[in-house]
């Protein structure tokens, strides 16, 4: 082989590690649309706290250049500029950042503003995972778009393994009835299609309103009294806000009140679709185990 051929072969071999980064990257979002990027996204804007956490979990944190109001996790987001709130975007500020990927939230962001971004050739990837599997999948898909597959796939795998371990640990647990309170006025809960109900089932719990047709049903207090749940759980209005739980003490005949089974799980761990749902599920299972011991 000539020296020229050797140098050419060496050049080709040296380029091989870079070839995957040059390949087109495609992923299907939660709206069913497939988005393809010519190269990994380098300037990402996330338009909800959940989207932000998922992007960082996917290993794309260093590529996130802006977030929206009320983003609080991970700690690095405090240093990032805001482009408005999830419900009202500052499109001028967003466009000035020249993003090559915007991660939107289907039910949280104004559809017309996301469509405006797309009309300006800004790639938009819409998320809204509905269950624990969807959360892990979102991390993997974002990692593919950001070129951080090794990180994202590893974290998604550990999340799935943690969920499976909890399911196995509580597979034979004695069923216990649960009312999950989403809001107080009007009183609201969740049916069995929501990931919080999936977490309740994971821990051997039974959602007393799981069969209702609406995802977020409205109730009255009489319905809760009639259901007589063994446990009442809420995320409240803050990480340590137990006010809603204390309100139920007006009904000492409720099994959950009589047995002291009024539990708070911080909303950031149970109401926001991120990999931290695993920690939330672990806390939820601990509380249901405590409640079983009160019988």
UniProtKB/TrEMBL annotation:
Highest taxon of the lineage: Bacteria
Signal peptide (UniProt feature, chain positions): 1-23
Pfam family, one: Peripla_BP_2
Start and end residues of each Fe/B12 periplasmic-binding domain: 43-292
Keywords: Signal
InterPro entries: ABC_Transporter_SBP, ABC_transptr_periplasmic_BD, Vit_B12_bind_prot
Matches recorded under Gene3D superfamilies: Nitrogenase molybdenum iron protein domain
GO biological process: cellular response to iron ion
NCBIfam families the UniProt entry points to: TroA_like
Protein name, UniProt field: Cobalamin-binding protein
